[in-house]
Amino acid sequence: MKNFSKLALMALFIVSGLFVVSCNDDDDDRVAEPASLYAKLGGTTLVSDPNNPSQMIEQGRLSYRSVVDSTITLIVADVLDGAEGNLGEHFAPILSEALSGNTTNVAILSKNLTDFFSANTGGGATNVYTGMNMVAAHDPAQNPRMGRKSNDANYDKFIGYVGAAAGLNGVTDPELIGEVVAVLESLRAPIVQE
Ligand code: HEM
C-alpha cells in the first residue's frame, strides 16, 4: 500500500474512532440532570397508601398529599380562630359546606392541589392536573368557591401554613423547604389579585 493511502486509512480510523467515542459519550459522561423536587420528596417509589392500605401510592405524591392535607387542617383552624386578618372570607364557601357535613369538595381540593404540585415539580404521568388555571381559580368572578380575592399578606400566611405543614410531615431539610418556597413564590403573581 502506498504511503499516501496508508495515511488516509489511518486518518479514517482516527476519525471514526472519535465518532464512536462521541456517540458513546451519552452513557458515560453526561452531566447528571438535577433531581426534581418530586424525586427529592420520594419520587416514584411505590408505598402502601396509609389512607387505603390495600392500594399503593408513589412516595412523592404521598408527601405532597400529606403536606396539602395538613395545610388544609391549618387553614380550617385559622378560619375557626376568627382572628383579624384570617382567611375566613376566602375559604367561606368551601368551609361552610364542609362544616355542614359535605366534605366532597374538600376531598376534590386536596386531590387538585396534590395533582397540581406533583405534576408541576416532576411527577410523571400518574399525576395530571385537571383543575382551573391559577388566575381563574383565585378570581371569585370565575370561581365562586373563592370567597374573596387574596392579597400579599394572605399569600404570606398561606406560604407559612405550607411550611408548617411540611414540618409536621417530616420535611425539614432547609434546602428542600427553600425549593418548595421558591415554587410557591413563582405563583404569587397570578394568585394575588387584590
Ligand atoms: C402557592 C399558593 C397557592 C396554590 C399553589 C394554590 C392552588 C390552588 C389550586 C390548585 C386550587 C384548585 C383549583 C380547582 O379546583 O380548579 C385552588 C383553589 C382555591 N384556592 Fe388556592 N392556591 C394557592 C394560594 C391560595 C391562597 C393564598 C388562597 C386564599 C387566601 C387560596 C384560596 C383558594 C380557594 C378558596 C380555592 C377554591 C377551593 C375550592 O374550589 O374548593 N389559594 N388553589
Rg measurement, Å: 25 Å
Mean pLDDT across every amino acid position: 88
Q: What is the count of helical runs?
A: 9
Which molecules are bound besides the chains?
protoporphyrin IX containing FE
Number of strands: 2
| CATH hierarchy class name of the largest domain | Mainly Alpha
How many distinct folded domains?
2
What is the CATH fold-level name of the largest domain? Globin-like
Helix content: 55-70%
* CATH architecture designation of the largest domain: Orthogonal Bundle
Residue runs with pLDDT of under 50 for 5 or more positions? 6-25
Instruction: Estimate the global geometry from the Cα principal axes.
Output: globular
* Name of the CATH homologous superfamily of the largest domain: Globins
Helix and strand content put the structural class at: mainly alpha
Strand content: 5-15%
Q: Main sheet: which strands, in order across? A: 1-2
SSE topology string: HHEEHHHHHHH
Distance between the termini: 84 Å
Main sheet properties: 2 strands, antiparallel
How would you portray this structure in words?
- The protein is mainly alpha-helical and 194 residues long.
- Helix 3 (59-81) crosses helix 5.
- Strands 1-2 form a two-stranded antiparallel ribbon.
- The protein has 2 domains: 1-31; 37-191, Globins (Globin-like, Orthogonal Bundle).
- The protein has helices at residues 3-29, 37-40, 59-81, 88-99, 104-120, 134-137, 152-168, 174-185, 188-191; strands spanning 46-49, 52-58.
- A hairpin with a 2-residue loop joins strand 1 (46-49) and strand 2 (52-58).
- The protein is globular and about 55 Å long.
- Residues 87, 90-91, 94, 105, 109, 112-113, 116, 131-132, 137-138, 145-146, 150, 154-155, 158, 184, 187, 191 line the site of protoporphyrin IX containing FE.
